[in-house]
Design a protein that fits this description.
The complex is a heterodimer. By secondary structure, chain A is an alpha+beta fold. Chain A is built from nine helices and 13 strands. Chain A is rod-shaped. Chain B is α/β, with parallel strands linked by helices. Chain B has a five-stranded parallel beta sheet, sandwiched between helices. Chain B has a four-stranded antiparallel beta sheet with strand order 8-9-10-11, covered by helices on one side. In chain B, helix 1 (10-22) links the parallel strand 1 and strand 2 (26-30). In chain B, helix 7 (171-179) crosses helix 8 (188-205). The chains are: A alpha+beta, B alpha/beta. Chains A and B meet through helix 4, helix 5, helix 7 and helix 8 of A and helix 1, helix 4, strand 7, helix 5 and helix 7 of B.
């Protein structure tokens, strides 16, 4: 529910609640005033009759067309004036009537008199009926105006909020300039903007620091690694025996693995930092075929047959380096976890890429396969980051990847969202040749 | 060939110095940006091995300096920074190639030869050794002037051997050279064996001498003597 709707509903609710109370108060006040005025007028008449009596004139039984009665009393009551409200049913008019009697008491020339006059006044029900009609129109007008004006005014008042929201939505940690939030005079929005700005600045700072750290860490680790590797290479050239050679070989293996893990983790960090954003469309089908052909020898060695169904002109919005890593990791997995004389099926369309391969059932729960350092069939020749990287590549490029094992087949499917695939035939994209690009897994 | 190694890590610079000196190159070291600039102003070098992160500045600044001073040389960037924009920036500012740490010295050598060939030899580009001749432009390999029917990978492998004659090439180094640092697949090492086997077979079939030796536990060596 929109904020403006909430405010409107609350306001209307309050109006509905308050109206009966205010109606009662007005009704009471109006009635009071009417009676008061009437009583004053009737008292005045009584006084006038009393004055006439005092002057010795015989008063008429009505003055100013108000009927009046004069009665002699033996004894005066305590109060000078008594007011009676008298309700009855008028048979002729067939309605309830309300009459106000005012009795005034005087002592004139030693005689006690009660002078009374009366008049018909507006009944309570009539007042209520009139008020109800007014209230109906009043409420209708209030609701209508509140509903309409709230919408118009909120658009104006909430404008800075909407602008802030848009700025934050467009905010990317990668952008170098600080975020610029619109000026507002509303205290709450000022507070919000202040908070947003602080958060964004902190996030940018943290991001820069983390990036700096990971880069520094990589530098600090890779240089000693390079030292060890080069020294081992030089050592291998010296006059050594078989035992030393075996030791050096083991060390070289370990360093190789260490270097790969380091690079893979760095790649994951970079993917998480979205450093490989691209707006270019590449010919995914072409890369698929190229990567597939680079695996030819390995397929031959395991005697694996490959069935391909690769559509032409599949353009995908993805960084060429990432496309290559993705396919490399998927295909090398399909080969590594395959059986001798196995089968691989590669299907590529504008909707998805599917790689199906024969193999032993997975030993770890399927959902763990995409986690880091989780390996099915604990393959010794893998560092266990391949699928984690595949998943991260898919996440940053808005692709979805799923795995299942069915009928002796491992099936990995990467679905392409429509907005990432383009169908027009652009000139062939020539990827920049980064020789030795650490496209690893 | 005269080479300047710009690298602040003395051990690594020492390794490169030793290796390249053994190959018969004249090699000098600079441990910082200022030192490198001084050396470049005084002497001329065929190749520069350039580290990006230096204690007194960014290696990329040296590229600007080389451009501004009109120094004609080949530049190979050596860096631990794998940031893509760094790589692109380096190549755009005039570097010829980019290699990331850690690397194999034989790989460094192969890259160095490749950019030197490209830049200094101006095309006449056939690398020959006794009866073997390789043309990197056409990817043609000849033994006794007979064209060998070899795959691209086998060609790259033979070229790698020829550049690093009499060096032990570990299987890791060969795998990294042939497949880059692709995938987390360490099983590539077995494919190295297959490739070497096929290559030896093909050279022998064409009447060539089998120069490639297996060095127990370590890898292979192309023997020129």
């Amino acid at each position: 529910m929109k904020l403006v709707d909430k405010f409107t509903l609350w306001f209307i609710g309050i109006v509905i609640l308050v109206t009966p109370v205010s109606m009662y108060i007005s009704y009471y006040n109006i009635k009071e005033k009417i009676y008061e005025a009437e009583v004053i007028r009737l008292k005045e008449i009584n006084d006038k009759i009393a004055n006439q009596l005092r002057a010795g004139k015989i008063p008429r039984h009505s003055i100013f067309d108000f009927p009046a009665g004069i009665v002699k009393l033996k004894k005066l009551p305590k109060d000078n004036v008594a007011v009676n409200e008298y309700k009855f049913y008028n048979e002729q008019l067939k309605r309830n009537e309300c009459r106000l009697d005012v009795n005034s008491f005087y002592t004139i020339n030693g005689t006690n008199y009660k002078i009374s006059s009366y008049n018909y006044v507006t009944k309570g029900e009539q007042i209520v009926a009139g008020m109800l009609k007014a209230v109906f129109w009043k409420m209708l007008l209030i609701i209508l105006f509140v509903a309409i004006s709230a919408r118009l005014v909120s658009r104006y008042i909430l404008l800075p909020f909407k602008q802030s929201l848009k700025t934050i939505q467009d905010f990317s940690l990668k952008q170098k300039e600080k975020i610029d939030l619109p000026h507002t005079t509303t205290a709450e929005f000022k507070e919000l903007n202040c908070f947003l700005k602080k958060m964004a600045d902190k996030a940018t700072d943290d991001y820069a620091r983390v990036k700096e750290f990971s880069e520094n860490a990589s530098h600090e680790v890779q240089t000693p690694l390079a030292v060890i590797q080069s020294k081992l290479e030089l050592l291998a050239e010296t006059c050594i025996g078989e035992n030393q050679a075996a030791l050096i070989s083991d060390m070289q293996n370990a360093i190789e693995k260490l270097a790969k893990i380091n690079r893979s983790l760095l790649l994951l960090t970079k993917l998480e930092n979205q450093e490989y954003e691209t707006s270019e469309n590449i010919r995914f089908c072409k890369i698929t075929r190229e990567v597939l052909s680079s695996f030819e020898l390995r397929l031959q060695l395991k005697n694996i047959s490959v069935n391909t169904d690769i559509d032409k002109n599949v353009y995908l919005q993805i960084h060429p380096v990432l496309a290559e890593i993705l396919l490399n990791n998927l295909l090398s997995n399909a080969i590594r976890y395959n059986i001798e004389d196995g089968l691989i099926e590669v299907t590529l369309s504008r909707k998805m890429l599917m790689i199906k391969n024969t193999g032993l059932p997975p030993e770890v729960p399927v959902e763990q396969l995409f986690r880091r350092f989780k390996k099915s069939n604990q393959c010794a020749d893998s560092i266990g980051l391949g699928l984690a990287i595949v998943k991260q590549i898919c996440i940053v490029n808005g692709l979805s990847v799923s795995y299942q094992y069915a009928d002796g087949f491992h099936v990995l499917e990467v679905d392409f969202p429509e907005e990432r695939v383009s169908q027009d035939t652009e000139p062939d994209f020539e990827p920049v040749n980064f020789k030795g690009t650490p496209a690893l897994g | 060939m005269k080479i300047l190694v710009v690298e602040d890590n003395r051990e690594l610079a020492g390794s490169m110095f030793d290796f390249l000196s053994q190959e018969g190159y004249i090699c000098e070291m600079a441990f910082g940006l200022g030192e490198a600039k001084n050396k470049l102003l005084l002497f001329s070098y065929d190749c520069i091995l350039l580290d990006i992160m230096l204690p007194d500045g960014n290696g990329l600044d040296l590229l600007q300096f080389i451009k501004a001073e009109n120094i004609y040389t080949c530049i190979l960037i050596i860096s631990a920074k794998e940031a893509l924009d760094d790589k692109v920036r380096g190549l755009e500012s005039g570097a010829d190639d980019y290699i990331t740490k850690p690397f194999h010295l034989s790989e460094l050598h192969a890259r160095l030869r490749a950019i030197y060939r490209r830049k200094k030899m101006n095309g006449s580009n056939v690398i020959s050794f006794n009866e073997i001749g390789l043309n990197p432009d056409t990817l043609e390999a000849r033994v006794n002037n007979k064209l060998l029917d070899i795959t691209r990978k086998e060609f790259e492998l033979l070229l790698y051997f020829l550049v690093n004659k009499n060096r032990i090439l570990s299987r890791q180094a060969i795998a990294a050279h042939l497949w880059g640092d692709y995938t987390d697949n360490l099983a590539n090492l077995d494919f190295v064996y297959q490739h070497v086997k096929n290559l030896r077979k093909k050279i022998s079939a064409a009447g060539g001498i089998d120069y490639i030796d297996t060095v127990y536990g370590l890898g292979y060596k192309f023997k020129s003597d």
